[in-house]
């Protein structure tokens, strides 16, 4: 078996520093003790294309304010397009309707023509290009073309409503807007012409609205829009030539990403080209073992940061496997069909997908040849201990399962998989190299055990440059640094394990506080969702009688009924599996549970509704109609 890149890197670090690194913990300690040397080695080891410059880290003890590689210049797209030839760069499956592949040479050609067309439309460095697109080859190519110019990319998925799109892109005033004509989901063809007719006139900064054909109506839709042009017409004047790359500073803006926006207008988080690139190649190559010739898949939409992470796989020479559509159409096998047919080596998905698969009767280990699959990653929410068991029992026995956690805020992970270390059920293996992750109590005291706030004590390259339209940095500072001075407070409720791993118990702002004791919602879900009748659960704290009481909502399997017997089963399970304090005061059945476009349940929005307060930005939800199920419930009055 080939030696893992992390093993090579540890040897390189030992040779470079003259220090012994007997284990991963020693390597991690060095990576945070000497961050300048560590990130310098990552740059060289991963073959970053660019001029590094003299200085490696300036004001390294300031957060925010630290500058990594302040003299460096590079181009993000150039680093992703180093490879050429006729091997696959992108392989795309659109539900069961479309299959396409682009070689590296074909990807270069498409990026070149898109680059010329964007320049012709007046796009210059620092301008924004916004996309409302499926996860398809044109989206990756348009992002690369945007980055090649030094312009800034921002994307969402086509299932967003007009208000959700405008709440995001209206803030950043894009020069060019790319959108599909429609998409496929769960066997349906969904035309978005009416949505585009509402969105495009409300983006007055546009010079072009480029409509990409997916369902075959782009040439009819484009002429109905101001500045509208079908992609084929947008590209028609331009022949493929060598892509030109604008050299940009390390901290040049690359992406604008958005907070979920379920409690207000989304925050516009600006990420740098150098910081994103360096952090992603570290995670994809070193932590995930993905390299030249590997076939990398993440089930994601273009509205989730995992799409940006997936795209960076090109920088290590991997083929990207792109999927757009429902993972359960027509029968739940499609992603494993894809893995089998395309010799997938890395399979990324959400904890909710693994849980749903576990609750179905599907067992890919018996139906699919997954011989090439080496690693499976799960994120979006904490992965339940039972889901760990299911992956090894029902998907593949000899696989590295990595539960990973980070976020849009850092366009990457704080904690993730560590090759060579054991995988313990219910635990994330450990912090990423170069990240001084810790768990603190409310007074800022580090906790060796017990639950507290997930923090990062030292600056790292993929911290945001800042927020858009936040000239004095006050909103950025308030989001992460108000809680603990000069320390990143991430907003996750976490604890260290005896194995040096971490457990994330949910968002700390959704933490329950009955009787003043902090409880993570994930601790409740891990128990309740093992009960066969329960498909999904959501817990909130309801203000009640000068305290907080735990209210649990459950979505039940078809035919199941929430009677006294099931309520007792749920309460007993929580009491024994978690603690008596976790037992809900009220348990209610609901037909649906609201979630964001990336599949995360929205505890805060439900809490607001239950308390009779408005939820400002329902457009951020995949199923906003579900919120009405929680309004004015007589059982909670």
Automatic annotation (TrEMBL):
Q: What is its EC number?
A: 6.2.1.16
Q: Does the keyword Kinase apply?
A: no
PROSITE patterns per UniProt? AMP_BINDING
Q: Where is the Acetyl-coenzyme A synthetase N-terminal domain?
A: 25-79
Note the Gene3D superfamilies from the entry. 3.30.300.30, N-terminal domain of ligase-like
Asked whether the UniProt record includes Ligase among its keywords, one would answer yes
Keywords, in A-Z order: ATP-binding, Ligase, Nucleotide-binding
Q: Name one GO molecular function term.
A: acetoacetate-CoA ligase activity
Domain AMP-dependent synthetase/ligase, by residue range, is: 82-459
InterPro entries assigned to the protein according to its UniProt record, in alphabetical order: Acac_CoA_synth, ACAS_N, AMP-bd_C, AMP-bd_C_sf, AMP-binding_CS, AMP-dep_synth/lig_dom, ANL_N_sf
Q: Which residues belong to any copy of the AMP-binding enzyme C-terminal domain?
A: 528-600
Describe the family membership recorded for this protein in Swiss-Prot or TrEMBL. Answer: Belongs to the ATP-dependent AMP-binding enzyme family.
- Matches recorded under PANTHER family: ACETOACETYL-COA SYNTHETASE
Record-given protein name? Acetoacetyl-CoA synthetase
Provide the species name.
Answer: Kaistia defluvii
